[in-house]
Design a protein that fits this description.
By secondary structure, this protein is α+β, with helices and mostly antiparallel strands. The chain is built from nine helices and 19 strands.
């Protein structure tokens, strides 16, 4: 069973992070921390490549992902043009360098990664034996060439993970626990600082390109060191001191990359393949939650995202967006300063700040120079925190999200507490307070979601204590719902064997 999502709001500025196109055509200037073949431990397909997992994650969402790339380090990659060296079992090919030029491949995304053993000196310092070339200058050469060929492609620096050999003092791989801790501390410390400086050099020298960076290595290090995946054996993550990863590492690297290039949280219900370590499956929703938070928090000193590509704003300038709860309804009000090509607003709702669903649509004004005001009402049928956001859609299909707004809703026409829970008897009690006399419906579902008990329940005005018969239900986990058609309370109930 997947771990429950922790509760946090996703604050995405309107017009800053837009949903990326469904189709991704990627070229990778990389090496074995992007594409490790053949692995020491054989795999059924290309599970030790980032592209393999990006394709599967995209396919799960009905999106297209195709890729190719070439192996090498930056001095070799700067010897242009590149070639389509990498092909995959299941990833669709997107370019044959023998048949067409790079400019005709319609690449949307380019990944570039530096060596993971070059961090002993600054990225702007000459690489030994390369005639004065630096990591920065080699990258500038690649970026200049790519943007001349495909001006609309977004360029990402893929921050990998460091060489591990210098952290192992014994006979060789694997490291001890303390050595692995020191390794992960370096990955999130001095190693990461080098990459931040590297991106800053590029942003300063090529501001028109606005290169983005994906902090894959530090995110993985935090997951393995002090977050959710600390119990996975090192030998299930890496297979040597390079360190080349096993499928679990490349899956997590791809999951991080997917969310970065898409600008959206991954599907928390994705069915993680068995070749990935089971701890990832067991904690998957929390892992997605953590990665998304890390990506959103990776900003510069001015609070600007280092990850997400700032796209051109759509033709709607949002002036205000507010939400409030009034008599059991969530009322959303917003206004625009001006509109151009605005089809309308899809209203999305979430109970956890991650998984949103559309609950309505409000037609836009099309094109207007004067202020427009809008309102939408949503019946609040559950106690708790409610998240709302606007999805503004243009007539041509482009869209962008507003920031999330929150209502903390704790009052309803009646309230109840179920106890004892867990229970080892045949009855549980419901302490209920209602504003008026009414009939409620009680429903009990088993762990498979099957309705196993249903009964009407009459309640009086004021406080009262009611008994619910749960016998002879077998011990196990149940979901109890009490509702009147408009308002509903729900509990997870554990029934223990009778003593």
């Amino acid at each position: 069973m997947k771990q429950l999502l922790s509760l946090f709001a996703l604050l995405i500025s309107f017009g800053t992070i837009q949903a990326q196109a469904d189709s991704v055509r990627m070229f990778l200037f990389g090496h074995s921390l992007l594409d490790h073949r053949p692995p020491i431990n054989p795999t059924p397909s290309d599970e030790t490549t980032v592209a393999h997992w990006l394709h599967l994650l995209s396919q799960d969402q009905g999106e297209f992902y195709g890729a190719t790339g070439q192996y090498g380090f930056l001095p070799q990659h700067a010897n242009l043009p590149p070639i389509a060296q990498w092909g995959y079992d299941i990833v669709p090919p997107v370019w044959d360098s023998d048949l067409e030029p790079f400019a005709d491949a319609d690449f949307t995304t380019v990944l570039i990664t530096a060596a993971n053993f070059a961090q002993w000196q600054g990225a702007d310092q000459p690489i030994p034996g390369q005639g004065g070339m630096t990591t920065v200058s080699a990258t500038e050469t690649i970026m200049d060439w790519v943007t001349a060929q495909e001006p609309s492609a977004t360029i990402y620096i893929y921050e990998n993970w460091p060489d591990m050999a210098s952290f192992i003092s014994g006979p060789g791989f694997p490291p001890t626990s303390s050595e692995f801790l020191a390794y992960n501390n370096y990955t999130t410390g001095g190693f990461h600082d080098w990459w931040v400086d590297y991106q800053d050099f590029l942003l300063a020298s090529r501001p028109q390109i606005n290169v983005r960076m994906i902090p894959v290595g530090p995110i993985l290090a935090r997951l393995f060191r002090d977050q959710l995946l600390t119990n996975i054996p090192i030998t299930e993550l890496y297979e040597d001191d390079a360190p080349h990863g096993r499928p679990t590492v490349y899956f997590l690297a791809a999951l991080t990359t997917y969310m970065a290039i898409k600008g959206q949280v991954a599907d928390v219900n994705y069915d993680v393949p068995d070749i990935v370590h089971p701890d990832v499956e067991a904690n998957y929703s929390a892992v997605v939650n953590f990665i998304w938070s890390e990506l959103n928090n990776f900003t510069d000193g001015n609070g600007n995202s280092r990850v997400f590509a700032p796209l051109a704003p759509l033709g709607v300038e949002l002036a205000a967006f507010e939400v409030e709860a009034v008599e059991g309804e969530g009322i959303l009000r917003w206004s625009t300063q001006s509109e151009a090509n605005n089809w309308g607003f899809e209203i999305e709702h979430s109970l956890d700040g991650l998984a949103y669903e559309a609950i309505g649509f409000v037609k836009g004004a099309g094109s207007a120079e004067e202020q427009q005001t809008y309102e939408f009402r949503h019946s609040l049928t559950k106690r708790g925190t409610h998240f709302y956001r606007l999805k503004q859609l243009d007539f041509d299909g482009q869209f962008t999200y507003s920031e999330a707004k929150v209502i903390d809703f704790s009052t309803g026409p009646w309230s109840a507490v179920l106890f004892p829970n867990p229970s080892s008897g045949r009855e549980v009690s419901l302490r209920l307070e209602a504003a008026e006399q009414k009939w409620l419906q009680v429903r009990v579902y088993n762990s498979l979601g099957h309705l196993v008990r249903q009964a009407p329940l009459h309640v009086n005005r004021g406080q009262q204590l009611l008994r619910l018969d749960v016998g002879p239900l077998p011990s196990g986990l149940y979901r109890v719902q009490v509702g009147d058609g408009q308002w509903q309370e729900e509990w997870s109930l554990v029934l223990m064997p009778e003593r």
